[in-house]
Design goal:
The protein is an alpha+beta fold. The protein has three domains: 33 residues, no CATH class; 116 residues, no CATH class; 83 residues, no CATH class. It is built from eleven helices and eight strands. α7 packs antiparallel against α8 and α8 crosses α9.
Length: 309
């Protein structure tokens, strides 16, 4: 007998080999003993499958959340110097005892960047020995924010990739440390777009049409005036919601001084300003124009006062 052992892939000589009693496949004696039987798949002399590993619920469920005072965000870990991100790892996130998720790593980093998650929030994933702050799991994302646009892989469902901004000065607990860069992501993605130009154009256009109708149909003037107020009020609600506030905020416009603030937001504030707290170019130009008008009024009053003496 001279053939090849299916276990070690070496030649089996007649003096050092044996044949499987069932399928007659040649084996070395040592290979047969080490495998504890025939190595041919399906042969009844092959060893039985290994026993499956039992897993209890404690090994797959997240551990209990620690008390709020039981941890503090640590410093940066030397092993996390390279920003490697795995889109297949899912995390549960908890704040004040309330769990959300699961989120994969790119989504969790995007929520950190948008301020929806905080560095002090706790997170847990399969394989971790307990809940840890996000600042400990992703120290690089919090200290090297600018490195992620090129290194974070896109998830399988092609979620939009946010741009990670440079940390902003003046961080407080009530304000996200990393502001959303203008144009990087729409913080009001679930709301109808109704920007400043759309609001101003709609108000003037609707008012012009209603004025023409009042001039043509004198008998319906009270009804048309009511429709005019209702239409302008509806446009103001849409604009305030576009800024990021609740539409009910428009009700304080009935208060004279508060109405000035509502009008200012409707004309000057960009989309999502209530969330991002970032003024775009249009809002800055409006501020400079307002400042110029104020200066001209003050100078005019001063000149008038001097000339009157």
């Amino acid at each position: 007998m001279s053939s090849t052992c299916p276990y070690c892939r070496e030649t089996v000589e007649e003096s050092e080999g044996m044949a499987c009693p069932e399928c007659k496949t040649p084996h070395h004696h040592d290979c047969w003993d080490e495998n504890k039987g025939c190595t041919v798949f399906g042969c009844i002399k092959a060893p039985a499958d290994e026993q499956k590993i039992a897993v209890n619920s404690a090994e797959v469920l997240p551990p209990p959340l620690p008390r709020a005072s039981a941890y503090a965000p640590p410093g940066r870990s030397p092993s996390d110097s390279a920003p490697g991100v795995n889109a297949d790892v899912a995390y549960l996130v908890a704040r004040d005892g309330v769990q959300t998720g699961p989120y994969n790593e790119p989504t969790l980093l995007a929520r950190l960047n948008a301020g929806l998650c905080l560095p002090t929030d706790l997170a847990w994933s399969m394989g971790m020995d307990g809940w840890k702050p996000l600042s400990e799991i992703f120290p690089t994302a919090l200290s090297m924010a600018g490195a992620y646009p090129q290194s974070v892989p896109q998830p399988r469902y092609a979620a939009p990739q946010p741009a990670y901004a440079v940390p902003q000065p003046g961080y407080t607990a009530s304000q996200p440390r990393y502001a959303v860069p203008l144009g990087a992501m729409d913080p009001m993605g679930d709301r109808l777009r109704f920007g400043r130009l759309a609001y101003i154009g709609s108000v003037f256009g609707f008012s012009f049409v209603m004025g023409m109708m009042m001039a043509l149909v004198k008998d319906m003037e009270p009804v048309l005036i009511l429709l005019l107020y209702a239409g302008v009020f509806t446009m103001l609600v849409l604009r305030i919601r576009d800024v990021g506030h609740s539409g009910f905020l428009v009700l304080i416009a009935l208060i004279p001084l508060a109405g000035i603030y509502i009008g200012y937001l409707a004309i000057a504030a960009p989309r999502g300003y209530a969330i991002t707290k970032q003024a775009d170019t249009g809002m800055k130009v409006f501020h400079w124009c307002l400042l110029g008008i104020l200066i001209l009024v003050v100078v005019g009053l001063v000149i008038n006062g001097v000339a009157g003496r």
